[in-house]
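Researcher: Quick sanity check before group meeting.
Model: Go ahead. Protein one:
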Amino acid sequence: MSDVATLEIRGLTASVEGKDILKGIDLTVTQGQTHALMGPNGSGKSTLANVIMGRPGYAVTGGEVRFKGEDITGLTPDERARRGLFLAMQYPVEVPGVSVVNFLRTAYKSVKGDEISALAFRKHMKEKMVDLGVEDAMVNRYLNQGFSGGEKKRNEILQLAVLEPQIAILDETDSGLDIDSLKQVATGVAHLVGPDLGILLVTHYQRILNYITPDHVHVMMQGRIVMSGGKELASELEQKGYEEIRRELGLEEPVGAK
């Protein structure tokens, strides 16, 4: 495949409400690769996801984020989405009065810049629903209103499938899911993995990696990536725990850490 999309993060520092969170991140995610970003609470993983997507309130104080060779740090979230980035949020919001299907069609037209008929979009969406095992009833409901945690996350994966980005950041997609919901969501993501999609999977736990095999695993602590390796690194983290890894690396315990 030509023109492979690459997300390049170099020397990235960022703050939230004046507090330094990211302290020099270097990371490259290429279309077709799956990267797992792991680490304890408060390490900066979700901040990195939000900074990549340009969420307001997250201030880049140094370094750069480049996508397909372009510095995107000055772009709005919708401009980044149109270029082929996607963020599955940790806490999807409810939008009363807007059905899932209408939301997805509006998002599709915004991201793709295409005028698409309702019939043509329904066909495109239905193909993705069949692939992911999403029932018709879900897309006719209001967006995330009354959805269980598992339904919200499955809906995020349906959005990912419909919008067909080149690089997707999945921010703790496994958060709050029971075993059955985790399996449904994770197998949906695994179904989408392929040469056209690069994934940065943000997670605390190794369990989702039982269904999604990463090409690379990175450990983030105290606003930095402190270790990188292959899929076996996730198993090592599961066995040792983050505290032992922190001690082995000689990292000081963060102020206020519990």
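Researcher: Fine. The other one?
Model: Protein two, sequence then structure:
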Amino acid sequence: MLNKPAPSIRRRGLLFVMASPTAGGKTTIAKRLLEEDPNLKQSVSVTTRAPRDGEVDGKDYYFVNEIKFEEMLMRGELLEHAHVHGMHNYGTPKAPVEKMLAEGKDVLFAIDWQGAQQIAEQMRQDLVSVFILPPSAEEMERRIRSRGQDSEESISKRMNNAIDEIGHAGEFGYVIINDNLETAVHQVRSILHAERTRRRRQVGMTDMIVTLQEQLRNRLQK
């Protein structure tokens, strides 16, 4: 006899934040998770830069001017924000994220440690944070060079910045070493699955327990 599937219990979503130094692998791992897990969504950021060819407003980014961005920031509408490369502002609108969490969807962020700190300040109860380390400085440099996109000056700057970035690993709930991509993806996926079952996120668990108790009482009375 086949077992019946487990009953679905209403759950609040979580904020799944991954950070890493350059060439740590967060972007690659994030892409894999999004491809495999339909309940995991990526937040849509707001930016002051112009759309690139093929980008769609509201899908790839919310494109706004500097005045609109500053208004959103002043009203506390952004979950996190950053000024990137000294040119453009980026941020995560808070309202769409809160809506997804209330609907039981999990929201993925692949960001830097500063962004993770900002999210923790506002929504720590919903946060699951993972820091991803490369296995060695040698492997980090090899990965950067394999991209073929950086000058010697840029490579040196990235590796120098990584010294400070790695120092923030202790601020995260989980730390994994990305020595093998498949192993790293499995570890991150396991963290996500475990965090989904935390009691405080299963907001429908009380109803489930009451229903199960009532079913047992009814069976005993027969």
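Researcher: One line on it for the slide.
Model: The chain has a mean pLDDT of 91.
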